[in-house]
Design brief:
about 600 residues, 2 domains, 3-stranded antiparallel sheet, disordered N terminus
């Protein structure tokens, strides 16, 4: 269902002073009924800013209505951008985010002919990524000495819990026209490129957008390539079409994640320079040893080379894991953020939602919005860093939500348990609430709470600069809505604890009368946690991983532990989903899995 509010949908139209006035006039003229309803809602809204709020009062006009489900989808898209773990745990992305790669950044590309690509091709942000996609020579028995990561037949993909998940093809090899997987014994090459002019017209696709499946992970590319929603998203075709579409406004390429972050560069000869073009030595020659030995010595040597290969794959996986924190070499400009969320229905289930099948009108609105914004190019410093804000919100409230949820999930109805629950709720919420309780309203407890809630939300959600696009207004409204729901939980927890302590200490009465209040609080906390979907923060390993291990989040494309999320996942509602807790892995985990497969 299309939203009736075209101003809420994330258009990247720049707002000049003139257009701001026109925009405000349009809002007023939407209809008298809507205006009155919004004003009435705003007046009664417990999150209405107090006069002493640090935010200019006129910014309140930028707060637009959005459901908590849609607000959470936008919030998580912003928070998960360029974070590997988030991208895998919420694999089907819904965002198109203008990106910027600074001058001097190194990019990597492997191929089999040593020639600079003359058209769109893939690059990796980490050399370990490219290194794992270049070949080694075959031994005399005709077996290649490296482990490949192609799709096994009938693999269990994220969209097919019963096996046989479909895969889209790159249609020409991932790393160039000289395919490193050919059976010849020619040396393969590894390029290092350096960005000589900032790549200001890149697009980030959130989610597991390089998964090579037909279950939604590649829908954003299908939209920009104007592909048939009933067909497969062929990677090579999509790359050619997207770069062809972007040629008129100078599109540099796009960014996505596989087992690590990669990109497609549309023109390697425009803003990149070759730093090195290295023919990679054969593995055995690097060691000064023959390709193989006979007998028992050969078995032992084969085990050694398998361990070396497993370590290379672990290095690749570890580099991707490092970017759970964030891929810091890429910058984002949220002023041009595009999404179908709040324009049409998008499922809140991040494993089931699809956007390639949305209406053509919404698709064209997204495409036009990107074109309009990218003509001028990205400038990450020009707008508010919304991801900095979402990170502060998650870091602050994720532990508190878990602590409060645990408190109301474990109580029994005996007096000592109820008193312990009241104390826990108070300990976990009191300092947060007290920080915003203004003594000026001490004679009006209701007003004191309303102003405290408003100030609490404003503390965490605010513009760092004047909003410059409707996209920023959508993000602001989404963050405000999510944070408001969490602040509600904090205050409800505080009030429940306070009521119970007053009953115990002042009235010296039993606490059984508060059981329904606790049950209502439990339902409220559970509803908020399930709706905001912060699993990327809540999921963690059940032990501290050792120095030679990482806490591994399974990926959905090719990886050292199989294709399509076969490892570390479970089936639920017809989809493979990532297990919680996650598992610590080392190179030995990869080695053992490969031995078992063989």
């Amino acid at each position: 269902m299309r939203s009736g509010y075209t101003l809420l949908t994330g258009s990247s139209e720049e707002l000049s002073p003139d257009s701001k006035t026109k925009r405000r006039n349009r809002i007023v003229l939407l209809s008298a009924g809507i205006t009155c309803a919004v004003l009435a809602l705003y007046t009664l809204n417990p999150f209405h800013r107090a006069p002493h709020s640090p935010k200019p009062a006129e910014l309140d006009s930028f707060l637009k209505p959005i459901t908590l489900e849609n607000a959470s989808a936008v919030f998580n898209t912003v928070q998960g951008a360029l974070r590997a773990k988030n991208s895998q745990i919420q694999p089907i992305g819904v965002g198109f985010i203008p990106a910027y790669i600074p001058e001097g950044t190194l990019l990597y590309h492997g191929n089999g002919d040593g020639e600079v690509p003359d058209g769109p091709e893939w690059i990796a942000m980490d050399h370990e990524f490219s290194y794992n996609f270049i070949g080694d020579r075959a031994n005399p028995k005709g077996n290649r000495t490296d482990d490949r990561h192609g799709p096994p037949g009938g693999h269990k993909g994220p969209g097919d819990g019963h096996g046989g998940g479909k895969n889209s093809s790159r249609g020409g090899g991932k790393w160039g026209k000289g395919n490193p997987l050919n059976p010849s014994n020619d040396h393969t090459t590894l390029f290092t490129f350096q960005v000589t002019k900032p790549l200001t017209r890149m697009i980030l696709f959130d989610g597991s957008s390089a998964a090579k499946t037909d279950t939604g992970e590649m829908d954003q590319q299908g939209i920009l390539a104007r592909m048939d929603p009933e067909g497969s998203v062929n990677e090579r075709t999509a790359a050619d079409k997207i770069c062809s579409w972007g040629k008129k406004f100078g599109l540099d390429g796009y960014i996505r994640i596989e087992n690590g972050f990669e990109g497609v560069i549309c023109d390697f000869k425009d803003k990149l320079a070759v730093v090195s073009n290295l023919k990679i030595e054969w593995s055995n020659d690097t060691l000064g040893l023959p390709l193989e030995f006979e007998g028992a010595k050969g078995d032992d040597y084969g085990n050694l080379t398998s361990q070396i290969k497993a370590m290379a794959s672990y290095d690749w996986t570890k580099q991707g894991n490092i970017h759970d924190k964030r891929e810091g070499r890429i910058q984002l400009d949220f002023r041009g953020f595009q999404t179908p969320v709040n324009k049409t229905y998008v499922s809140p289930d991040t494993y089931l939602r699809r956007i390639l099948n949305i209406s053509d009108d919404v698709k064209e609105e997204i495409i036009t919005g990107l074109e309009t914004f990218l003509i001028k190019g990205s400038n990450p410093s020009a707008g508010t860093d919304w991801q900095l804000m979402t990170t502060e919100i998650v870091d602050k409230f994720a532990p508190l939500l878990q602590m409060l949820n645990r408190s109301v999930s474990t109580f029994s109805e005996d007096e000592s348990s109820l008193l312990n629950t009241a104390k826990n709720l108070t300990v976990f919420s009191n300092n947060f609430v007290r920080r915003f309780m203004n003594h000026e309203y001490a004679n009006d407890s209701e007003a004191q709470l309303l102003h405290a809630k408003a100030d609490a939300v404003n503390e965490y959600v605010h513009f760092l600069q004047e909003p410059q696009s409707e996209s920023e207004i959508l993000i602001y409204s989404s963050l405000y809505t999510v944070t408001s729901s969490i602040v509600d939980v904090m205050f409800s927890s505080f009030l429940a604890g306070r009521d119970m302590l007053q009953t115990h200490y002042l009235k010296e009465a039993p606490l059984a009368g508060h059981i329904d209040q606790l049950k209502a609080l439990k339902a409220q906390i559970s509803r908020v946690i399930s709706t905001i979907q912060w699993e990327s923060t809540f999921y963690r390993c059940d032990r501290v991983c050792d120095w030679d291990e990482i806490c591994y989040t399974p990926s959905w494309g090719p990886s050292p532990l199989g294709w399509g999320g076969n490892w570390g996942t479970h089936e639920e509602n017809g989809r493979n989903r990532i297990d919680n807790p996650l598992q610590c892995i080392s190179y030995r985990t990869i080695l053992n899995e490969r031995r078992r497969d063989h």
